[in-house]
Design goal:
With about 150 residues, the chain is an alpha+beta fold. The chain has helices at about 1-10, 15-25, 70-80, 135-145, and strands at about 30-40, 45-50, 55-60, 60-65, 85-95, 100-110, 120-125. It starts with a helix and ends in a 5-residue tail after the last helix. The relative contact order is 0.21.
């Protein structure tokens, strides 16, 4: 009976108040995309990012905008940061890191990448044995697995 009464009250509340109540009582998450992009030589694109904590080097990507689909965010981020277009974009996995959701993709590109964003210091195409030593071990492991075909 109490549930029915509370449900009725809930429905009477303006939607913005319901949203405020939900946000106040639920954990908040941020969401981003990361893309392991390979070129025709089988090398992976890595960016030296100004805003990464610890190591600046890692896979390209960024935050998903409100209302944006993850695949569209992946394409947008790569184009904004490097000017490249993605081919054969496919999702690899979704993982949570604390209160953050990361959606990882794999794609190919034949385009020449250039630094197009003030957030990026430099970029390069790297083979498995050439990755920057200061790159995070987690991202290195993911890239190595992709290059070995473990996600295919």
């Amino acid at each position: 009976m109490l549930g029915v009464i509370l449900g009725g009250i809930w429905k009477l509340l303006p939607s913005r108040f319901r949203l405020l109540i939900i946000r106040a009582t639920q954990k908040k998450f941020t969401a981003s995309v990361g893309v392991i992009v390979t070129n025709p030589d089988g090398k992976v694109l890595l960016l030296e990012h100004l805003l990464r904590p610890a190591s600046g080097w890692g896979i390209p990507g960024g935050f998903i905008d409100a209302g944006e689909q993850p695949a569209a965010a992946a394409r947008r981020e790569l184009h904004e940061e490097t000017g490249i277009e993605l081919e054969n974009l496919r999702m690899l996995r979704v993982r949570t890191v604390g209160r953050h959701i990361e959606i990882l993709f794999r794609a190919d590109s034949r385009d020449r990448a250039k630094v197009k964003s003030r957030e990026i210091k430099s970029l390069g195409w790297f083979g498995p044995a050439e990755m920057p030593p200061e790159m995070s071990a987690v991202q290195k492991s993911i890239v190595e697995k992709v290059l070995r075909g473990e996600f295919d």
